[in-house]
Amino acid sequence: MRAVDVIERKVEGKELSSEEIAFLVNGYVEGSVPDYQMSAFMMAVVFNGMTGKEVADLTMTMMNSGDIVDLSDVPGFKVDKHSTGGVGDTTTLVIAPLVAACGGTVAKMSGRGLGHTGGTLDKLESIPGLKIEQDMDSFKDIVRRLGVAVIGQSGNLVPADKKMYALRDVTGTVRSIPLIAGSIMSKKLAAGTDGIVLDVKVGSGAFMRTLEEAEELSRTMVEIGKMLDRKVAAVITDMNQPLGLSVGNALEFREAIQVLCGEVDLSDPLVDVCLLLGSHMLVMSGKAENEADARMKLIGAIRDGSGLEKLRQMVEAEGGDPSYIDLEKIDLLCQVRRKVPVYPDRDGFICGMNAEGIGTAAQMIGAGREKKEDEIDHAVGLIMHKRLGDAVNMSEPICTFYINDETRLDDAVALLKKSVCISGERPEKTPMVYEVIS
Ligand code: URA
Ligand code: CA
User: Fold this and answer.
1) Strands 231-238 and 195-202
2) In the annotation, is 73 catalytic?
């Protein structure tokens, strides 16, 4: 077989065989297929797409390129959740302990922030002492004891994705539905859980900009799960504004604690999405009869504090100082040199937000990395005071920056202002949740 022939067949829009896909992907991981052939192939996929069978073959080959986690010696139905990436999306820190408090078993390997989007691992590392690198035995041990562990990827999981993702990042081949589906599902399947709830984001802060694209990505990933005998559900949620009000690592951790303490209204977008994802996880795990029952249980675990207690236990098990899992003490991790309010240039209503711009503004002041080796300042970030559709006036800040290093503050403030559109008319309400595909 020759790589160039396989690439040409994809260029001609033909369906590739399992062997052809395996030849390219395995060859790329081993080094016999060079970067330029892999990028030509992926660009052909961007334009010509893939059939359901091709995406399944791609996913399987990628999944089998490295270690696969075996959770069979951990009792219970193991469930994972995954977001395609957003801004102010601290759902994992809320749902993982809540679902465990309701009897579910959550075994989750999370990622770091990517571009303008935040990552759970960076948020976890806001807590002094917490070690996100755990070996497989201690990961399983924590899941067995507490019903929940969220750690960094351990071992050599899906090396094909590491290589392909880095290449996609610099060849304009990130936003392809089959490539995204293969990338996400190969990692989720290799992580070994029985069920996966996917949060597919759509909007200005997401990879998927239209509902049609988000639906297609969701259906593709659910189909892959079916073929491999895992339970997969996808919910499509809005990313046209930061999900929570906080953007930044310790700040988002604090917001998660506020939710778990019942300090945030149940109708708040962050809580709304958490309850939706959590209820699908519980129903899938057989721990609730239906969505309504699951919601009641989750709300119960907020009200009686058992969700917060689970988070505290998990933090302690992972080496973190559990005393920070507290409404007042978490404030100590959000101490910064200066807090800078940002005022709007006119009165009116917020008619649009560019969530990517808001995420990038937080990244610019040190909440995220621009290069892989950049250091994060866990305390910094921003807090939005207004949501889409809210009335604003020039004497009230729309946002407060939490900063330690002022070098790029002016640029960050300018970007934030540019990312919030204000008009004279109140816009129509848009939904937070579009649909559920399972
Ligand atoms: N997240 C991933 O893990 N992979 C993609 O391709 C896009 C988002
Ligand atoms: Ca108090």
Assistant:
1) parallel
2) no
* Helical axes 159-169 vs 18-30, angle rounded to 10°: 80
* Residues 6+ positions from 17 with CB-CB distance below 8 Å: none
Name the pTM for this structure: 0.93
Q: Do 294 and 278 form a contact (C-beta atoms < 8 A)?
A: yes
What are the phi and psi torsion angles at 296 (to 5°)? -60, -40
pLDDT in tens, 170-179: 888 988 999 9
Distance separating alpha carbons of residues 350 and 427, to the nearest angstrom: 8
Which amino acid makes up residue 112?
R
Give pLDDT tens digits for 401-428.
999 999 999 999 999 999 999 999 998 8
Give the model's pLDDT for residue 118: 77
Place of tokens 């962050």: 270
Question: Atom 8 of ligand 1 has which residue's CA nearest to it?
Answer: 84
CATH class of 3-63: mainly alpha
Identity of the amino acid at 285 = S
Is the CATH number of domain 335-423 3.30.110.70? no
What residues flank ligand 1, with Cβ below 6 Å? Answer: 84-85, 180, 183-184, 207
**Sheet strands (E) in 317-432:** 338-342, 348-353, 381-384, 391-392, 399-403, 420-423
Q: Is 410 a catalytic residue?
A: no
Domain boundaries, given as residue ranges, for the chain = 3-63, 78-177+189-328, 335-423
Q: What is the dihedral of CA 189, 191, 197, 202, to 10 degrees?
A: -80
CATH architecture of the domain with range 78-177+189-328: 3-Layer(aba) Sandwich (3.40)
Ligand with the closest atom to the CA of 42: 1
Residue 329 CA to ligand 2 center (angstroms) comes to 10
For 87, how many CA atoms within 13 A lie in the half-sphere containing its CB? 32
Residue 65 among the catalytic residues: no
Question: Checking DSSP bridges between strand 195-202 and strand 148-152, what pairing results, if any?
Answer: unpaired
Q: 173 Cβ partners below 8 Å, 6+ apart?
A: 39, 42, 43, 45, 46, 167, 179
